[in-house]
Fold these 4 entries.
Entry 1:
Amino acid sequence: FTAQAIGDIYFNGTINTSAAVDRDVLFKATDSIVFGASQSTRTNSGDVILWANSDASGTGGITLGNGVLFNTINGSTASGLSGGGDIILAGGADTDADGQPDGVASGGTSRSGVALGTSTSSNIKLYSGGGDIIIRGTSTSNTGDFYNKMGLAQYGKFLADAGTGAIDISASAVNSYGINFVYQDNTVNRYDDHLVLRSAKTTGTAISISGTSSTSYGVVLNYLHPKKILATGGGAISITGDGGIIYGVFMENADILASSGDISINGTDGIIIQTLGLEIGAISGSAEVPTSS
């Protein structure tokens, strides 16, 4: 399935290509791509690619409505799987001619580069089952509230489970956070996990998060709601934030756990950890990541 547009793509519907193995789903637009609420896309090992800003003009972000579901492992939601397709939310040019975007989805001067949800009741889920999950965004926006100015902005809940694949998230912003996980004024279901990033990749970097801001924090794991970053198969976790003029990384109430791989958290100009703190390495008795890194 392929949908291409000169301009924007607004999609409200369900796509299921699982009757055939390795059948990809591609949305490609010179401007923005917007998925409506509760839309689902399912493949049987085919890639799901949202390719905004395909002309590399610097304008063309990606918005996923509340409750969007992408599954590239034929509908399974089990962890640790292999053989699934990639899930890519990105943009710009294809510099290596592999049929995938190698740049960023760009909100330009009016919105965030990648928006995951539109309200605090959102619950977005990505399951790649061995394929990589790649998200890249940028924004120069100075319009509206801080949520409209981020490289990557998350409302509500967000789960990304890559199976044995990797998770690679990078974003930048000029006038707000580079990456913001969990909306800071969210009071909905405060004790539920609002961020889960899980990879069972066995070697190399399982989960990479890199955020840059010219004026604020590079990477934010925001305030009260529980957040989990889990490398369960032996791979490493890398979190890097460049805050420009303030702390590179801001964190609270997060478990950052790896079964045996290294955990690296680097913040240019420092790291700030708020009252509810962090668990890093392993938690005694945890069924999710049973051994310490």
Entry 2:
Amino acid sequence: SHSGYSAIFALGDDLVVENCRFAGVRNGVWGGRGALVRDCSLSGSGAMSGSGFGLNLNVCSVVEDCSVVGHQMGSYTAITVRTGSSVSRCVVVSNSASLDFTGVGVGPGCVVESCVVYANGAGDAMRALDGSTNSIIADCSVDRNNSGVFDLSMVAGENSVVSGCRSDRNAGAAGIRAGPGAMIVDCSAASNAYDGIQLAGYCYAIRNQACGNGVGSFSAGILTTGIGNRLEDNSAMGNYAGISLSTSNNLAGANLTGANVTNFYAAAGVTNHFGKRRTVSTPYSDWNTYGNMSH
């Protein structure tokens, strides 16, 4: 514990830090290529001006079973790793920044799994979980984070995969933004201030749940922001708009919407392709299993 200073600053390769506790430091661990940081905790001890970070590691590094809790700074990044790294089973909770904040940020080709980013705040830009291109984000939870400006809680870059993740109750932010060319499967986005799931083009969204997003604003459970997306077997309930195809050349089928101000929106004057839309109020059967249903 040494208020206002870096705990470990090691630019060399293959650094190993295990089972360590850091309290009240401005910067935690800065490591070079191939670093391993495991079973470590970093905790804040009062407000500090300026910027800081928890873990900042170079390419091909591994972070496992770490926690970053309770820091207060001008700008703060809890965990950041660069190309080809992995972050697993980490917790980022109750940190705040008067300017910008990043919970877990990763470079291209990284894997983030089983991480929790909860109840963090930013006066300006907020990225609770920020994934770059060709990354995998699996079984992660981003919940109750607060951005001072419109921002994005969970981001997956071009050609990434997001699987089994939750993005819920984030204030001042949308839930999940993916793409272009990303796959979003078995995810939940609920009660976020703006859109639940944004598809940035040529994405495949399947078996996702988007509920209660954008209430009181013109936002959607699932929104296309780029062209050529495919949406199948998703459920969008209780949003301002359920599914919004605001761009062209999207394909939507076998989706369920209900209790939205507008259940299904397709922009006028552009070409989209979707299964037969049917509004149902009583039990029925239909051979057209690719149809979209509203109730």
Entry 3:
Amino acid sequence: SCYIRDVIMLTRPIPSTGEALPVIGLGTWRGFDVGPDAASRAPLGQVLEALFEAGGSVVDSSPMYGRAEAVAGDLLAARGWRPKAFIATKVWTRGREAGIDEMRRSMDLMKSGPVIDLIQVHNLVDWRTQLETLRAWKAEGRVRYLGITHYTPSAHDELEAVMRAATPDFVQLDYALDDRAAERRLLPLAAELGIAVLVNRPAGPRAAGLGGVDQLHELVADPAEIRAGASGGDLRHPRNRQSGAHARQRAGWRRRAARRGAGQANDRGDRMSVLKRPEGDLYYDVCDIVPPW
């Protein structure tokens, strides 16, 4: 199991409404694509519990993610967590009627109730058609926010064009320590147009596949230094990152932490700390996370 202590979750306002949204959310790609058995789902319930106890709310899924929508919805309903969750999913098909059918099914699977918080056009598939439907649904009160997504820098030109043409409430894009292309145009444009930004693959492309734990630890500063207020935490704002040489000096420590393995607690227990400094920087203390799956 895991527990959380000393947590202060930062929030940011959604520009189109001013509603506060916690800065850390939960994606469901791969991890929530599991079967109905309790052994597979119990650890995911712990993940959701950790998210909500830490002050988080965003749970993001997609029809593209296999069984993830259904699994997330079942877990949210079973524990009565719907009021705590900001439910986000996507539409990933072509055609008006096909889009409507898919979005209705997603709402049913995720147990959102009559109103879902956010639906995004996944990878910009037939975005004009789907955004037209979403705007009608928003006017009718079926969806609170609408958005667009993509996951690769090669799509940034198209993302930029759609942001300018449609001004959605949200844009979801790739942004990480080793994937910073969004800084050049997309993030400034989102600020200019008042579009909220969701970040996918925040650990970076290199940590998205197998072996990602080791690769993630190579990017993370020593949590003892972060807690002590050291000047160089790697997962702070990119402008304050450490040099690669400094990070590599602690690679051995990080790899030992990664090799503790799934389900094995360290001597201080498993935890995630999100710390707020007076100057407003956000620190992610992830080196002590040992996932429960």
Entry 4:
Amino acid sequence: GNFTNTGIISANANATGSYAYAYGVDTGDIGSFTNSGTILANAKNTNATDGSAEAYGVDAWNIGNFINSGTISASAISNATDRAASAEGVYAYDGIGNFTNTGTILANAKNANATNGNAGAYGVDADNFIVNFTNTGTISANANATNGDAYAYGVNAWDIGYFTNTGTISASANVTNGDAEAGGVKAYSIGNFINNRTILVSANVTNGDAWAEGVYAGSNIGNFTNTGTILANANATNGYAGAYGVPAYDVGNFTNTGTISANANVTNGDADAGGVGGYSIGNFINTGTIFILVSA
């Protein structure tokens, strides 16, 4: 069926000593999804020994056409032992055909004062595919953990056919006593990638390892074009810091007229940074700036 929201949808789940799950929209297949209103999902778990907190702005199996000009927000907070806080702005178990965002999509996860409790945040997440992705708005994922690991990804999918960003995509992971990983765009393969504006990534750790990746492709990127800014910053104290602008196994055609920056900073540990990395690049053209900084 089709889904249209011009109003307010709010889901709130609060638990003490149990699980907290909040879904703004939770369904199977959606043919056409249109939101110009507000969708909120908030989950909070306090003082629990065995219970997690999970929040989903939109949770679906498949979405044919997705259009958001409003606000979609997911927030999860957990203080549980050995459990996680997980937040996803938009999640499709299978995939999304056409994705267009001109509004705001937020995902925030926090696991505070836990023992072995993790935090994970995804702005947009599709287990299998996104055929066409267009963003002119804001997509943000933030994960924070104390005594656990944190990971945050702005956009995550197995395959992305066509990707165009003229908005802002950001991901931030912050940890005390654990590891942090953050990625702006993460996929196994991307057919055509165009960034005309901003992708910001930061991973910050005290007593652990930090990884920050601007655009990651485990297999290949067919065509890569950047006229905007891609920044990856990793900072660690008593650990390791790794920052990479565009790590991909294979890139067919690479063109950069903008800025790609990778900064790795560590106090009492090791650091590594790379601007553009991969097994092979077919054609490489750079008239912009590729900046790498390692501080140790």
